[in-house]
Amino acid sequence: MLKNLLIKNYALIQHLEMAPSANLNIITGETGAGKSIMLGALGLLLGNRADTKALYNENEKCIIEGVFNISQYKLKTLFDALDIDYEEETFLRREILPSGKSRAFINDTPVNLDALKKISSKLMDIHSQHDTLLMGDANFQMEVIDIYAETASLLKELQQAFNAFKKAEKNHQSLLKESDDMQKAFDYNQFLFTELERATLEDINQSELEEEIEKLENAESIKEKLNEVLEYLSNAEFSVENGLKSGGLALGQISKFSKKFVTLKERIDSLQIELNDIILEIEAEESELFLDQERTELLRDRLDTLYTLQKKHKVDDIASLISIRNELQEKVDKVLNFDDALQAAEKEKSQLYAVMTDLASKLSAKRRSIIENLEKEITHLLYQLGMPNANLSIRHEAVSPNFFGTDSFTFLFSANKGVAPQALKNVASGGEFSRLMLAIKYILAGKTNLPTVIFDEIDTGISGEIALKVGGMMKEMAAAHQVITISHVPQIASKGSAHYFVYKDDNALKSVSKLRKLSEDERVKEIAMMLGGATPSEVAFENAKELIKLG
Fold first, then answer.
1. HEC letters along 355-402
2. pLDDT of residue 375 exceeding 90
3. Collapsing DSSP states into helix, strand and coil, what is residue 420?
4. How many whole angstroms separate alpha carbon 372 and alpha carbon 436?
5. What's the CA gap between 481 and 391, in Å, rounded?
6. What b-and-e string marks burial along 397-407, b requiring 16 or more CB atoms within 10 Å of the CB?
7. Are the C-beta atoms of residues 98 and 59 closer than 8 Å to each other?
8. pLDDT band for position 438 (50/70/90)?
9. Is the model's pLDDT at 450 over the cut of 90?
10. Which member of 173, 175, 288, 455 has the lowest number of beta carbons within 10 Å of its beta carbon?
11. Full-prediction pTM beyond 0.70?
12. Looking at residue 218, what is its pLDDT?
């Protein structure tokens, strides 16, 4: 509940501080004194948009701060989720700087407006007479039914299941599109892969192939040159081989004269051995070499295929072709195996859809089960609030599964006998709407843990006995919730645990709205003035005392 409210430099408020009662707080005052300004300030704590035009002094910052005791409301999990320090006495603060910048804090931790809204919406509910327009909103009507039916945990399960289903559905759709895209390229990829696979690239050494075909294509010329070399080395009368033999013999004949000659002979002997090896290799090469037309054509075909593939895939080596072939194989295999992935995705989607629709069915049943009781309770309260012919019915329609289930509810209302109920947006006056909203809030108060409920002139259009009943309902609500209500009706004002008076001080150059808590005597006088005007009679004073006594 709200323990303390501080408002500085906001609209007509220079400095205002209030420590409301834990039960029913009444705020009264003349029109324009600044009562609704307080609600505007509280709206900033709820995350409403800030405006520098709201600054009382445009050169100073505006501060709105609320201190809340939240020890009874099980909000630690929410604080942890938002990474905000949890305190049983929590401070919400909003600042508007002269520059126009707005800042928000929870327990001195800077937060964005989304976090502020998530916390403050669990602490306060502000209802003004203008908010009765909300009653015609389908989301509001659904929320009323869910609170009354106490479906919070089931609705949360459904919403988690819905999100999981939508994720699975999106994944399935993505796979379908991917499958379609891949299928279009499949035939071409399959062709390219087969073409590369048939080339048996791992068995090819491109440089060896190129060297071999060049030898084959020049076999005659090479053979001729090899024979020429053999002629020089061993076949001619003055061949290298004969020369080395003769030279070796000559050195052998003189080797006894010097060790140097022995060494030289040994070196010539080594040359002869090396020369013999060279001659043998050349003879082998020459004997094996012949023009093999069939082999040449085969190699030409293989190289032509290889060059064609390299040009097609814009690479210049076999390793790159192998890499491309492997990538193509992955693409082809993925298409061939994609049916398994599609079936798995479709199965997951179907299973999650079944879970979601089962939860939606349970949720719908729970919602529909309370409709009759809710209709009766609201209609009964409206009767007590001076609307004996009022009739509220709730129409249900099944809709496609969505984040809120498979239900659509419409509140149909008639305030007059013989008039068929119609959608709320088409019927009811401001006063009727106010009483209808009060009846709804009264019923829902027992179903929620909301600490603080604030009403702004929800008593519009009522007086007398009906006003007493409205005040009694507010007092009953205040037994479980802190209630703050702005009122112009003395019967309601008399029910308060604490009574605050808002007034305008015009003594300075600029009017200032101020607030003070009334003593018992001041309270009697204020209610007497609400009954009898600015100069109330003794009868008005006695009536005021009687109302307070009854309260």
1. HHHHHHHHHHHHHHHHHHHHHHHHHHHHHHCCCCCCEEEEEEEEEEEE
2. yes
3. coil
4. 17
5. 28
6. eeeebeebbbb
7. yes
8. confident
9. no
10. 288
11. no
12. 65
Supply 235's token pair. Answer: 């076949």
* Burial degree of 35 (CB within 10 A; 0-12, 13-18, 19+): buried
Angle between helices 464-478 and 430-445 (to 10 degrees): 30
Amino acid 314: pLDDT: 86
What's the whole-number mean pLDDT along residues 240-255?
Answer: 84
Q: Tokens standing for 191?
A: 């062709």
Helix axes 430-445, 138-149, angle to 10 degrees: 30
Which H/E stretch holds residue 443? helix 430-445
Task: Say which residue the tokens 């719908």 belong to.
Answer: 364
| Portion of the chain with pLDDT greater than 90, in percent | 36
Kindly list the distances between the CA atom of residue 49 and the CA atoms of 16, 122, 452, in Å, as whole numbers in the listed order.
21, 19, 21
Strand partners of residue 15: 8
CB 331 within 8 A of CB 185: yes
pLDDT at 133 over 70: no
Domains belonging to the chain, first-starting first, are 1-123+454-517 (3.40.50.300), 178-337 (no CATH)
Residues with Cβ < 8 Å from 200, sequence gap 6 or more? none
Which distant-in-sequence residues (6+ apart) come within 8 Å of 360 by Cβ?
158, 401, 405, 406
